Amino acid sequence: MTAPMEETASPLPATRRALLRRIAVGQTEGRAPSLVGAVVRDGRLWWVGARGEVSEAGARSASVEGGGGRRVGGRTPDADTQYRIGSLTKTFVAVLVMRLRDEGLLRLGDPLSRHLDVPEAGDATIAQLLSHTSGLAAEARGPWWERTPGELRPETADIFGERPLRHPAGRRHHYSNPGFALLGALVERLRGAPWDEVLRREVLEPLGMGRTSPLPRAPHAEGWAVHPWADVLLPEPAVDTGRMAPAGQLWSTAADLARYAAFLMDGDERVLGARTLAEMRAPAVAPEDDDWDGGYGLGIQLARRDGRVLIGHTGSMPGFLAALWASPEDGLAGIALANATSGPAVGAVAADLVRIAAEHEPPVPAPWRPLTEADPELVALTGPWYWGPTPFLLRLRPERGLELSPLNGRGRGSRFRAEPDGTWTGLDGYYAGETLRVVRGAGGGPYGGADNVHLDLGTFVFTREPYEPDGAVPGGVDPKGWRPGA
After folding, report:
1. Is 1.10.720.60 the CATH classification of the domain at 83-360?
2. What residues does 301 pair with on adjacent strands?
3. Which residue of 28, 54, 365, 383 has the lowest C-beta tally within 10 Å?
4. Which residues form the DUF7586 domain (predicted)?
5. Which residues of 383-397 are buried (b: 16+ CB within 10 A; e: fewer)?
6. pTM here?
7. Which residues pair with 456 in a beta bridge?
8. Which residues have C-beta within 8 Å of that of residue 147, sequence separation ≥ 6?
9. How far is CA 142 from CA 59, 146, 150, 209, 474, in A?
C-alpha cells in the first residue's frame, strides 16, 4: 500500500466547510451509500472528505472530513478506499497509445488495420478511435457487457455485433466502448504484453499509483444499486470484462487519482510530456449541441463550467460512478467517487469542488523572476510589430519562446516554441502549428536593427511600422505614404 500523498497547506475553515457541504449534498440528494471527494492543488492532494459508509473492514475514517453522524455497521471510506472508475480507464489507455506515438511505433493517422487485423473497424484511424469519431457502435455485442464476464467475448472480433459501423469514420462524434477495446488490443500487439501490465509498468509505477488495479484490492467499496422509489439496496456484480476491460475496468482511489490529475495537468517526462498532454486536451471534433459545454480530445473529455475549461473524464460501471475534472489554468482538480449505479451527479460534484476551491482561495500567482538567459538579438526582437495597420506586441519567453498578442484586443495571438533551425512553431490559437520566421534585410544586422527586419508568420508579414514604405509588404505600399482624409 502506498503512503498517503503529502498535503500542501490546508484549506481555510470556510473553504473546508463549503467543500464538505458540497459532497454531503451530493451524497444525500444522490442517495449514494458513500461518496468520497478530493481536491488537488498545485500537484498535491489538498483536501479529502467523505460521506456515507462502506462495509469493508479496512477503511479508515480518521484521515477524511465528514465521517461523523449515524453509521449502521460500516466505516467511512477514505482516500485509500478503492472504487471502480469506469470510463476514466479510457484516459489511461489513451496515454499508452500516445506513448507509442511519441516513440514512433505508430502515427495517429494510421488506419487501425495497419497494426491489427480487425476488419470490423473499417478504415478508422487511431486518432478517430481515441476521439470517438471512428463511427463504431457504442456498445459491444450482447449481453450487457458491463455485467457479464469477458469469457463471453474471448477474441477481439467477438465484441462486435451485426452492424459494427454505425457512421462513416471521421464524420461525427459517437461514443464507442468497443473502440477503446480495440485500442487496448493495439497496445498489447505493439508491446507484446497485456494492456494492464503495460499500464502498471509504464504509467502507474512511475506516478506512484500503487492502489490502481484492474481488479479490486482491499480496502475497496462494494457496488450497489439503489431502488428508485425506496431506500433499499441491491448488490451489483463486479466482473472481469476481458477484451472490453480497456473501456472501463480499472479500480482506483482518491489519493491515486490525485496523482493522476496532477499528471494530466502538468505532465511527467517519465510518462508523457506536457506538450503531448496539451495535444490530447485539444478538441478533436466540434460538439454537436448548441451550448458547446462539452467536447472530446484524444481520450480526454472536455467541459466548460463556470467560465473555465475542465479536462478529465467521467465514468460509470454497475454499482459505481466516478469523475475527475481538472483546470490546468487554476492548478486545481476535483475528484468524486461513489458506489451507486445511478443517482449522485459526481461530474457536477467534481466540477463544483474545483469552483469552490478557486472562489474561496484563488490561486496565488508564482513570483515574477527574470529570465536566466536571454539572447540580445531576441531581446531586440521584442516590442511592437504591425500586421498592416494592426498593432501587436512580441514578448520573449523562457527557452527562447515568443508570444505574440494584439495590442488593441483585436487580432490573432499565439505562443511559439523555438526550433533548432532558428524558426518558431505556433502552439495555440489561429497560428497553432504555423511557422514564424524572422527575415533580415540586406544589411544582415541584428533583429530589430536598421536592416528592414520583418516577421513572416504563415506568409503574413509583420513590420516595425504600419505599412513601412520600404518594408516587404506583399503588394507594395503606396509611395505617397499615409495622408490626411479628403
Report:
1. no
2. 296, 312
3. 365
4. 375-464
5. eebbbeeeebebebe
6. 0.86
7. 437, 461
8. 236, 237, 239, 318
9. 36, 10, 11, 33, 63
